[in-house]
């Protein structure tokens, strides 16, 4: 299962979504794609998993201004009601394989897709 935390107004986010949609046929890889649009933010449990995947020391890359997981949860909780602007999008999460790509790094997204386990 891949989850894309997506902002429809963002060019980078739209591009990552386009790559994901076309990739399942181009790479003959089957995956379930969940799209979570702003202002919805990850739950505290999801955020904890994401930080485990990328490294807790990179929390500010996911939630700018956060110095810890607790900071990030607080900032997202406050931002969620005002548009979810407190987190970086696009954010692609591969829950099954413990990986995440923060931001619009198309190369990193393609590498993640290419290394998905085959069917």
From TrEMBL:
Coiled coil: none annotated. One of its GO terms (cellular component) is mitochondrion. GO terms for molecular function: oxidoreductase activity. Its main location: mitochondrion. The keyword Mitochondrion applies. The keyword Mitochondrion applies. This is Thioredoxin-like protein. It comes from Tuber magnatum (white Piedmont truffle).
